[in-house]
Amino acid sequence: MASATPLLKADKVEAPSTPGCKLGVLSEGYSPDAKISKGDQRVSMVPDVAESLIKDGYAVYVERGAGIFAGYSDEAFTAKGCSVLSRGEVIDKSEVLFSLEPPVADFQMMNCKVLISWVGRLQDKGKDVIMKANQYRITVVDVTAVPRITIAQKLDVLSSQAKVAGHRAVLEAAHSYQRFHTAEMTAAGKYPPAQTFVLGCGVAGLAAIGTSKAMGSVVRAWDVRDVSDQVHSMGAKWVAVDFKESGEGQGGYAKESSDAFKKVQQETFKKVLSEVDIAISTAAIPGRPSPLLITKDAVAAMKAGSVVVDLAAIGGGNCELTRLNETYVTENGVTIIGFANLPARMAEQASAMYAQNMANLLRHIHAKGKAGAFISNLYGALDQGEDGDIVSRSIVCCKSGNPVAMPPPPQPTPIKPKPVSAQEQAKKSASPFQSALISATVLTFTVCCMVGLGEGVSTALLSTFLLAGAAGYQAVWGVAHALHTPLMSVTNAISGMTAIGGLLLLDRSDSYFAQLLALVAILVSAVNIIGGFVVSQRMLNLFKKEGEKDYSPFMLLPGLVFLIVCLTKPELLKAVSIVSALLCIAAIGGLATMSTANSGCKFGMVGVFGAMAAAMVSLNEGSFVISTILLIVGGGAGLVLGMKVSPIALPQTVAAFHSLVGLAAMCTSIGSFVNTPEAGASMENVAAVLGDFIGGVTLTGSLIAFGKLNGNLASKPLDLPGKNFLNLGGLFLFIYFIYAFLNSPGAGGVLILWLVAILACVMGVHLVGSVGGGDMPVCITVLNSYSGWALVAEGFLLKSPVLTIVGSLIGFSGAILTKIMCDAMNRDIMNVLFGGLNSSPAAAAGDTGPKEHVETSVAAVAEMLCAAKEVLVVPGYGMAMARAQTAMGELASTLRANNIKLKFGVHPVAGRMPGQMNVLLAEAGVPHEWVLEMDEVNPDMESNDVVLVVGANDVVNSAAQEIEGCAIWGMPVIEVWRSKKVIFCKRSMGGGYADLDNPVFYKENTEMLLGDAKKTSDSLASMVKERLEKV
């Protein structure tokens, strides 16, 4: 006999047979007939949200006709599993009742039930409601009393309804304003965009700014608090009132202003209002009269046809002429709108958001216990006193006939001004006299140093040193962030000109030991030159577009000219050397843009080749043969290393190459004195000891950096007891060695140089070891600069203009790049140079309450991406470690091919080397036009429907702006939390290099896609492609 039970059940969600809790949804009593209407069009629950609550074990009873005027029919509720009943039946069957407006007339029917409503417990009207509810032992829950803390953001009905009100205000203004909002150019003429002024930048104000901008209006905004950065980020202009007064009040709201401030304020507003077309005022202080912002004189100054929308009409209005719930036109033609029911004028949207707030409230209270635990958890929190849930204790107004005292509200983190570094703070606080005095002192000291160099350095060398330094200073500022990695690789290859120092020493030396040191310098320098240029060219090749022709090899032709001149015109060797040095300067200039970067690399190759050729043709036959063999061997090793290294290993490779420059400089410095061991304070001896010291620090410091970047050493900083005194002791010992060396001829001087080398190597280990792994990008730029100064020392030592020029170029350019990196990471440059000299101040306490994050799935994220119009991907080092860049490249191509605008936002120091993310994305075939810098993506962050953060943490951590004193406080970051939706794709909830929790993880618009980035990215790219192909 066949079963009567169907094989498949319908999709309809059925109420549980024994519900854990029974919810009732009451009508607000709205009627199109104003004479009998009691409430507005909204409803406190919508079908989709009700369906999700039924799955949590609730039964939902809805009053007949409750959602009709919000666009939700009784049939829609029934289809989702709700029971549609009469009002009396709903009240009778329910344990918990929802109503936006408290149904005071029905309180006698609600004995001992829970009422969740918009009460306003601190207002006189709310107090009357609570008093009447106590007569019937009703437990009243005030949804407006939710504390303003992170975990309660998703319950905040004030914010959700204010957002609707701000959006609707713009639509009301557009309806009354009889002109275009956006600029139009037509056959009938050219029409300017509307000018909008938003007064008050709370939730409603920000929504009004966003909607006005979306409609094409030019927006200005003001708030009593300084939120200018947020306003600017939305593309609006900030209106400043020239009067200093803090505007931060309790509970995150603005406070009332002083009379003096109001006077200046109204004068400013009158001027602005005379220039704009639309004014939207949103400044309201709960429980108090709305502040007067727009006087009748200001309205009189406005243009005919202008519109004022006053969202604070319920409190008397921000505009002196506002009439509650009325729209009228003044004598001078200004329309003033004073509706107090703007959310209800978008009832469907407002109801959906309110209902979601209610669902979040229920879930916050019932937690893992689902529906059956709601009432017990709610009352349990009250019984626990101060240990109970702060949200529950704040929203319950009365229980069992007794009032429930509201606990003191937790203090929210106030809106902070833009973080200011210690250096900038000092600059601001310094008087003009102090600034001028400090600048003059620094300039005088610098001039004295430069003039002092003239005591022992020839005028020709001094002039080339200064001019090359100035050229390097100017050139490096123009290099794009995306090309910082190739820049460092090219300068590293050029610094291999330490080989010229070895060649000159080999040619001039009579000492076998000095010649041996020269040969070592030549060998390791050759590795650096060839390996560096191979790596540089491989990186630049990644940025080439498919099918793009590269004609930069023609730039190698001058090398043939250099070779011919060197072989046939020995009298022009110095000219060849100088021109070669100038080409090295041109190499940095060429790296300023993508279009000239390949040519810049070729300039560097030709420059180094010309200088090497000029040096080698002067050698005797024996030295020439040995040098050639060493250059071939070293160059071959460099070629093999350069071809084998993967893009992800570029940082440690560059660090390793830097160590070779340090070794070569140290060998040449010691070898030069071994050849001519003459005591005295000569330029040669000073240069020898400085080159020895800088070379030693660069050698071991680079090796430590390599170990940290390659994972051979822990990235945690080496924190020895008294580390600052160790650094200071090393410095004083070096100064003593200089004095002793200058007064020790022969073997004694050589011994001291070896002691200096040992000291420098130890200090290199300690200085770089004391810097954490997160600061390695800056460390590499410092070491890059050190290699330049080592070359300068060789140039002075061997009286070589070409070494002096190139060394000065690299030294100054590396120093400027270090400054750029320190600014990008908000790091103290002295802290990096001297191995964590300073200690970070204690961080201010953030929100210490329980934190909840929301996890998502690959399928859900794929749906979001397919439905989005604009997507931003923020890559970090986690993407590189997981080798997920290829999948991200495929995802980008798929979305772009389907008219979904995807772009990449790269932080200047994302990864372990400046510009590393750009190189990795180029390797994945991402065109460089799709890759934008932090300063390019932050201003338009709100326009992004989805931001996908792949393996990044510190560079998107809002603690940099929210937790004063934390390790990254003040660091410029990509402000992803301002987008519509943020998805973090990372392995775990752990912190980044700075080991800081990221508040963005717990924000309302954030979801976590946890797991291996490679597998997740591959699945995401595949699923997105699959779904878009079906469209």
UniProtKB/TrEMBL annotation:
First-level EC class: translocase
SUPFAM superfamilies tied to this protein: DHS-like NAD/FAD-binding domain (SSF52467), Formate/glycerate dehydrogenase catalytic domain-like (SSF52283), NAD(P)-binding Rossmann-fold domains (SSF51735)
Assigned EC number: 7.1.1.1
Domain Alanine dehydrogenase/pyridine nucleotide transhydrogenase NAD(H)-binding stretches: 174-338
Pfam families linked to this entry: AlaDh_PNT_C (PF01262), AlaDh_PNT_N (PF05222), PNTB (PF02233), PNTB_4TM (PF12769)
Limits of the Alanine dehydrogenase/pyridine nucleotide transhydrogenase N-terminal domain: 24-165
This protein's record includes keyword Secreted: no
Reaction(s) the record says it catalyses: NAD(+) + NADPH + H(+)(in) = NADH + NADP(+) + H(+)(out)
Cellular compartment(s): Cell inner membrane
PANTHER family the record matches: NAD(P) TRANSHYDROGENASE (PTHR10160), PROTON-TRANSLOCATING NAD(P)(+) TRANSHYDROGENASE (PTHR10160:SF19)
Protein name, per record: proton-translocating NAD(P)(+) transhydrogenase
Organism listed in the record: Durusdinium trenchii
